[in-house]
Predict the structure.
Amino acid sequence: MEEISTPTKTMEILKKYGFHFKKSLGQNFLIEPTILDKIVRIAAIDESVGVIEIGPGIGALTQKLAEKAGKVVAIEIDQRLIPILQETLSTYGNIKLIHGDVLKLSLKELILHQLKGFQTIKVVANLPYYITTPIIMSLLEEKLHIDSITVMIQKEVAERIQAKPGSKDYGTLTLAVHYYAEAKIIFYVPKTVFVPNPNVDSAIIQLKIRKHPPVQVEDEEFFFRVIKASFANRRKTILNNLIHNLIGKGQKEQLKIFLRSIDIDPNRRAETLDIKEYAKLSNLLAKKLNEKNHIDNI
Ligand code: SAM
């Protein structure tokens, strides 16, 4: 089959349908077949794999995925692209096109109905950048039975995901992704391989979903609340952030004593704590709060 992703073919398709890009939908189409081949190779797709693709565009990546995978389910929000995709991908019998918003669909249901029988399910996509983080977080938080997520995203977001404690990029997104997956930036991609060119550089990141979290957390909801509160103001100490955003004023001295008792210096900043320390902090803080019903008594 002729490659959709060459610059000439892409332009031909866009012209034929009089398609105009919608910036608001993050429409930057890839026009470099070798990059698409590399993405598919890194995702390690074969016939035993069921793939979910978010935002197929005109089908550049979808085509390459369908050539290797058992089945590809592609979700596209833009109604104007549906007839185009029906034509560009018409020779593939293993693609299910879904017109919809990935953030509104139940991916659990979709997997159940469309990818029944596949032991291995992977997400592969060139994501719409305006909703990169919500898409990644909903894929992780829904605890879907997926193996890995291999996606093209903004370089800056990829670096935040892969950041190490102590760096300026390290934050709530790093910790949230780290809790669910092992993240690795595979390679960087320049702006020039897209039409139209985006404003930012991109990176391919792979998230391998963990079977078990790297730390034991008693209450996940509270764990993430503690992290969010700790990072609310990066210039403030962990003590002040927790006081202002979680515990409430008037408890400062008690919280200081508590933090010292669990070997966390109250003057540290949120970005210096690793995931183990956040697990310890949230587990022990929750316990104290539950025991005494109020931090006043810690
Ligand atoms: N896969 C194509 C490629 O690599 O050339 C297109 C990628 S483009 C960066 C992102 C695609 O996601 C667009 O086709 C856009 O219409 C679609 N999209 C945007 N928001 C979406 C959403 N909420 N749900 C599903 N698709 C969406």
Summary: Residues 7-209 form a domain with the Rossmann fold fold (CATH 3.40.50.150).
